[in-house]
User: What shape does this take?
Amino acid sequence: MSHETHWWWIRHAPVPDNVRIYGQEDVDSDCSNEEVFRAVAHEIPKDAVWLTSNLVRTVQTANAIAAAMDEKHRPRQQPLKVPEFAEQHLGEWQGLDREGFYRTHRKAPFWFGPANERPPGGESFDDLIARVKPAIERITKEYAGRNIVCVAHGGTIKAMLAVSLELSSDRALAFNIDNCSITRADHLPGGGLWRIPTVNHRPWPHHAVAPRVPA
Assistant: This one.
């Protein structure tokens, strides 16, 4: 077994109601595109530890990927839910119409606002990074040398990239993370270095791509 720990981060499937900002609202995902899930299932390792956030759209996506795998390679247990990997809590912005929000809110090029802006009743992207980092460190230590498949959220994966690459939070927001895409992060033993083999990898044919949905 390799002493490297390989994380396979997957953003959840699209949310049908993408007109509203959902953040940590517990909304369903659309897992009807079987071709996409077969492609993702073909890419990920068969001997992995499986994780999701505590939000249903990640659990639904993980189950759809597992269902697309050969039966003998499917995970034997339900994924472990990690609440720290939930999407950024957008407070009073959750439920607002996206188009109207972007018309009235001060613009940020890649996100709902600057990384340090905390919505009323919610958390900033900086807060999300602070929440995600210790969970990644804890789980990497617990499952050292293993493959870890983690179905999470666009914001969570951007926060992971900020942590692993030691990026400023505003620069980490510039990454594009599409629904169902795979982002690999390998933790190297000794010194705590990370290697990023791929970001936003979409292994399905072009015609199978679902419309891109923001956070």
Q: What stands out?
A: The mean pLDDT is 93. The first strand starts at residue 5 and ends at 11. The two ends are 36 Å apart (CA to CA). Strands lie at 5-11, 49-52, 80-81, 147-152, 182-187, 194-201.
